Amino acid sequence: MSTGARADVSHGAFHLDSTVPGAASRGLDAFRRGWETQLGGGFRLPAFSPATIGDFRVKGRAARLSDVTIADLHGASATRTAGTPRGDEDLVRMYVVRQGAWALDGPRERDEHTVSAGQFLLRHFGHPSAFETAPHTTAKIAFLPTTMLGPLLGNRTITGPVESPEVRLLVAHSNMVHETIADLSPAGVHAAHSTLIELAKAVAQSRFDDMEPLLAPSLAQAAKELADRHLAHPELSPTMLARELRVSVRTLQRAFAAVGESVTTYIRHRRLERARLALTAGPGRPSVAELAAHWQFADSSHFIRAFKKRYGQTPTEYARSTRPT
């Protein structure tokens, strides 16, 4: 387990991996220490079942920004709380499940929900909830302040697909927080926190203000993550990305310009990077013509010119230079 937190208590982060051999039996203790030390006592962990304690194989990271905590978790083992947690917990929680399933019990039968792969849930929790996860569950959890989101949510439970534009933006922003938290200034912490709150409100309202400058970096990042999953798709373009994120092409271009890039340049550079990696594959690597076709260049000549402009060598020269002597 590795930890890292600033001297102030406004933000901190930690990583844990108890999926490595021999770590499962002490994984929960390490996780609890890191969680409570780095993220503070305001986000208490529940008691877990004996089976969970004895086989806690979880890999994850968590970050705190003032009164917001976000965690990315992958549980190789199943987890289950022990009994019904007691006490008060005035928090809004959001679950974004990519794989597996996360089952939540509420104080009333109607509050019981299972968040399946590809779905999210956003709800105000007035009390701690029992939960159970299936093996190999991958999820992002956000713990959010009730003062800013409770009045908007009321007693509603918001659910839907993780591919909705609002959830895409929130996930993209939280990923940026995880990557940059160690370098954030106090002003950066405040901006990152404010953006997370605004995006959580957008999820609750099923819409976001695409003219809000604060959201431009998150919109650009969401578009990048979407593009990275469709780099070989022949229809990948600013138009396709804008359509998936429900914004105009002009709004998307403006978001990229705010971070000093263009949409088309990003797509081209990512495709060239994938092609460059393929050229180092050794025997059986694709030909230049195959790479050009796979990464959606008009023809081999266009691909060769773009590659040389980017890397200073033709694809053939690059492949030759990386070949073992």
Short recap of the structure:
The protein is α+β, with helices and mostly antiparallel strands. The chain is built from 12 helices and 12 strands. A hairpin with a 2-residue loop joins strand 3 and strand 4.
Record the SSE blueprint.
Layout: E1 2-5, E2 11-17, H1 24-39, H2 50-54, E3 58-65, E4 68-75, E5 79-80, E6 91-99, E7 101-104, E8 113-116, E9 119-125, E10 131-133, E11 137-145, H3 146-153, E12 157-161, H4 165-180, H5 186-205, H6 216-228, H7 238-245, H8 249-258, H9 263-279, H10 288-294, H11 300-311, H12 315-321
Antiparallel strand pairs: 1-2, 2-3, 3-4, 4-11, 5-10, 6-9, 6-11, 7-8, 7-10, 9-12
Helix pairs in contact: 3-5, 4-5, 4-6, 6-8, 7-8, 10-11
Shape: globular
Unreliable residue stretches: 1-9
DSSP summary: helix tally: 12
What is the beta-strand fraction?
Answer: 15-25%
Which structural class matches the secondary elements? alpha+beta
| Rg | 22 Å
Helix content: 40-55%
Strand tally: 12
Query: Mean of residue pLDDT?
Result: 89
Gap between N and C termini: 40 Å
Biggest sheet: strand arrangement: 1-2-3-4-11-6-9-12
List the secondary-structure elements in sequence, H or E: EEHHEEEEEEEEEHEHHHHHHHHH
Biggest beta-sheet profile = 8 strands, antiparallel
